[in-house]
């Protein structure tokens, strides 16, 4: 008998939509309480509307779900079958609602973040990524290190959601870059260089006019490359670039090998490369290494918004 009732009821459950969940909640309360008045009190409603919900459900199914008794009600065989299915369905609906709310709050999903090699060495970047993982453990974070051009391509083609870069992205259609912070640039010298001896005074940038430079390729670090070139031109000379490197870390390796000197963000000191001495620079106004967060224009996903908010808050704390 119960098995047959399940077969009759189940097709109805497959076609049920959200407004009709009220009927199932009412039915579950009535059968669990065994009394319509007590069920109405439990649901915070009047008895007549609750009775109408029950009657409407019975009419749609074409079966009697409860047996009316002198002092209450009890489920019929069909009612018992519906009760079991209703509880499972309502429990699943409650879980589903919470899943949707968490997604809307940016607490679940996926976030792909890229960064240049120099950006990754600034403590701000790993620090904010660590905070995001701790605050939103339900979001899977994928990381990628690449040059600025590669990161911009990945953003445009939606392989990345955000990227920490040094360039302000002038003229990059479909992308935007929000400034986060700036750090000073330092002179990186081979340990045996004449300018590497310990002096308290910064090295004037014009003093480097006759030196050999090792720089990272412009397409890899466009923002910093252009800033260095501009500062040197304003100091009265064009840097003599004898070697370009594919990454900033490779640049330091070439400096350590004695191929020339370079100008790098202060955070690069964290690498503590052997054979390299860092000196402050003077007579170079405006020479600084910016850090930007690049995203797609119009991308308003909840996870990305949550990440952007965290970055903005951390940037204020950093300043």
From TrEMBL:
Q: Which GO terms describe its molecular function?
A: DNA binding; DNA-binding transcription factor activity
Q: What is this protein's name?
A: Transcriptional regulator, LysR family
What GO cellular-component annotations does this UniProt entry give? protein-DNA complex
Q: Does the keyword Protease apply?
A: no
Look up the domain of life of the source.
Bacteria
Key words, A-Z: DNA-binding, Transcription, Transcription regulation
Species this chain originates from:
Delftia acidovorans (strain DSM 14801 / SPH-1)
Does the keyword section mention Repeat? no
**Which positions fall inside the HTH lysR-type domain?**
19-76
What's the family? Belongs to the LysR transcriptional regulatory family.
